[in-house]
Amino acid sequence: MGHIEDFGHALAAFAVEKAQSKTPLYYADAFLNWYGCALAGSQQKTVERAIAFYRMDVSSELPPPIGRTERLSVSASIAVDCLSSACLAYDDIHFETTLHPAGPIASAILGLSRCHPVSGADALHALRVGMEIECRVALAMFGPDTGAAKGWYPTGIAGGIGAAAAVGRLLGFNEAQMETALGLAAARASGTRGTHGSMAAYWVPAIAAEAGYISARLAEAGFSCGIASLTGANGLIRQVALRPNVEAVLDGLGSRYVCETTACKPYPFGFIAHAVVKCCQDLHKKIRQEERSLHKLVVYVSPTSANLGGNPEPKTVYGAQVSLRYIAARVLSNPTRAFEPVDEDFSISEEIAEIARYVTVERDESLCNEQARCLATFEDGTECEIRCDVAPGAPGKLPSTEEIKAKFLRQVSGVRGREEAERLLSALRHIHDMSDISVLLTPTYRPRRPE
To answer: Which segments constitute the MmgE/PrpD C-terminal domain (predicted)?
Structure first.
């Protein structure tokens, strides 16, 4: 066990250890000092402006989160909506940055509509602006040769900035207000890859969505922050990246949209598995056609994919969604399972466990995240290599509108029934014509049929 793991265990043990003696007076003094500072500062303009936002954010009679009945504040509903969109690992992927761009921004936009009119046309334009800013900020920090640590979770770091931009646009911000919103969102940025394999992996985008909304509303209330929080010498970008790629942020801004290579995920697994899924689909077809028996399968993936997907025996749904060995065995057992989310009450079936015994995962420095190659050895000793050089969902292989519609119907029919799924699909296909997208939060809403 490494020193970092030891330290973490030691911290946890210390935190739960029973107190052995009376706490020194020092801490009573510290609390006294804090309380006095809080009371003395409670009437300051800084606090007044924060209160102005939080008073706007009360739950009252506002619509609940999507698919729920609980009445929450706007910001809490935004976080829950984004969490819901992420937790099946079926949302979207921008391979160049490994972002899941739409979730934080769409959640913040729909959240704003709970208390502020937002037309469909304005919502879609704000989504475009927010996703583009999110992707470009991520490129500046996480692009090639920036020197950023591999453990940052880009959606958590850049997602709130994009969400703040989208909400600020819908609120009619001027340039100074927008700078404030972006700076505040940078101050709230958070998220590491250490959350993978747990619920927290989907909480990170939710934090970003909530942070972007709150940042914009605080800016609206007059809460101050400079853009240096994002771009200054001590700002987020320069703290994350040793060599920020500023050119990537500026190149073609406003005329070329780098976010438009974002794909709606074709499979309900981490992006690291998409190329592996395609290889296993092709391998299963070959095995069936040639009536072969598999003896061994070595799956070669990028170093990042091997690192994030290297857990060979996941114990929970969250681990299974990024376990390359499990996913390969799942698809080889039945290719239709490539499109089915992992069950929340997760367990590995005997069939999948048997196939998984033949599967190993290896890193290949020559491969990138949207690539994989599989070397299969059959019972007769013959071998076969299957490659995927451009994974479904990667740039150049984005799903079509018809594929996205089919995915929507599969997902929503499972929780609302086919009729309701088709009704909602019809509504969303006419979002451009909506005068206020908050109607999407009303269970009884019926779309007006086009003339």
So the answer is: 267-427
